[in-house]
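Here is the promised in-class demo. Please do not try to memorize the tokens; focus on the logic of going from shape to residues.
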């Protein structure tokens, strides 16, 4: 079970279904976050051989809409998972940004909040390549080395990935990078609001979602690559990177303002 806009649902070209042989149950989430009542409502016909059996709750922290789950929200989802003998997975591609927003350590909103398996992101926070999988329920890792190999995710020079994580987690480099990107996203959101555009989601991590007039999107994309998140409404997704600068943000906003006329 995942949010309708979850990465595993819209961006993986059906990889979960192909490799796991599972069914994704996508739940509408206007702000990108699942709630415990929503998930509970979708757990149906347990024990019925004709119906897919609920087994995993998968969320993204921060969400695909740049919103951040509170610890209480995470504990509520974990409680649903425990009640129904399910696993709780967190996609932490932007986990550093969530940590800075919450002002909490990684452990406080992962292991201590009831997460079973965590995908710990590196590339969104400065690594050239590499993600880490953290098993808080160690029994779930029993055969993972084979899954990793079969999925062609065992790099022949794995030490180069590990070295990057050592650097990222030393002397709070991860925190400095995430603090920087969160700050730039807030600046970007404020500036877009100032020139009259609608920001559609709370700016809680390093992403800004806004409605752009259709006529400025294509000329803007020629200079700045970004996604149109919802084509029907012209909602765009703008992401600030660890190496983005305040000057780049202001230059982008000036270009938007110029195109608006």
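The designed amino acids, position by position:
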């Amino acid at each position: 079970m995942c949010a309708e806009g979850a990465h595993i649902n819209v961006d993986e070209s059906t990889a979960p279904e192909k490799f796991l042989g599972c069914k994704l149950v996508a739940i509408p989430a206007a702000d990108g976050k699942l709630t415990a009542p929503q998930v509970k409502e979708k757990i149906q016909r347990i024990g019925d051989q004709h119906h897919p059996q609920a087994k995993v709750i998968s969320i993204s922290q921060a969400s695909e809409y740049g919103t951040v789950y509170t610890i209480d929200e995470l504990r509520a989802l974990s409680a649903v998972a425990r009640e129904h003998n399910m696993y709780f997975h967190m996609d932490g591609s932007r986990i550093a940004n969530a940590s800075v927003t919450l002002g909490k350590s990684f452990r406080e909103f992962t292991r201590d909040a009831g997460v079973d398996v965590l995908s710990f992101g590196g590339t969104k926070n400065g690594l050239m390549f590499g993600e880490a999988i953290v098993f808080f329920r160690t029994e779930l890792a029993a055969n993972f080395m084979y899954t990793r190999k079969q999925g062609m995710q065992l790099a022949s020079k794995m030490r180069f990935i590990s070295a990057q994580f050592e650097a990222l987690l030393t002397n709070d480099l991860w925190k400095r990078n995430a603090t920087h990107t969160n700050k730039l996203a807030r600046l970007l959101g404020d500036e877009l609001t100032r020139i009259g555009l609608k920001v559609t989601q709370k700016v809680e991590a390093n992403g800004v979602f806004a409605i752009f007039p259709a006529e400025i999107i294509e000329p803007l994309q020629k200079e700045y690559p970004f996604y149109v998140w919802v084509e029907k409404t012209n909602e765009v997704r703008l992401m600030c990177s660890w190496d983005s600068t305040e000057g780049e943000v202001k230059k982008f906003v000036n270009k938007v303002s110029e195109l608006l006329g």
